[in-house]
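Exercise: predict the fold of this chain.
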Amino acid sequence: MNIVAAIKRVPTTEAIAKVGADGKSLDQAGWQYMASFYDEIAVEAALQAKEKHGGSVTVLTLGPSDASKELREFLARGADAAVILKDADPSSRDALCTAKALCAKIKALGADLAFFGKVATDRDNAAVGAMVGTMLGWATVTDVVGIELTPTGGKARRETEHGVETVEFALPAVVTCSKGLCEPRRSNLKGIMAAKSKAIPEESFESAPSQQVVVKVDLPPARKAGRIVGEGAGAVPALMDALKNEAKIL
């Protein structure tokens, strides 16, 4: 089974958001990066599929050369290969533009199965995986929390607004992974040493124009400082008055 896991390099949760000098982007000075949380689950699902059914796992990303750090970590966990579709400024691309680039490479790799995180933890679009599946014309199952694969297809449990539904699908397929599907493993010393010697090619790709353009970035207004209206049961009337007349939520 030829498996691809797509990942995205995103800022860590400690990153401080500041508007850039152009007013249209965020100032990334001093940021640290990591693989998006749900993408780690996608890689783990790909590795488990390989261990059960054989084949290989390629980890794919669209991003800068520095994304090799995250890719090498996944090589250390057991992925067979990794590829960077080199783009110094991936944040300037919309979801459709990104999906087109990933779609072309997944097709070129001859994949049978592609795993994505259900959503990237920086933009929360939850769009790229489903777009790739649609462009490829493959079965596409989103928000998956459980999966049973066979050499020709599988059965998946996916979260919906009305509960968990079970669906069957045939390969080739795209699966977007949600929390609870599996627990990402950690790399061991043997894997880390082996990953150091693996080449991570950086490839160009045919760039499609973005259909959306950021015209302005604003930070949310600062939250007002809290205040203590009193202590104990005697403070209840003052609290109720504040909730009704100041916060206006009663």
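Check your answer against the key: The chain has two domains: 2-203, 223-250.
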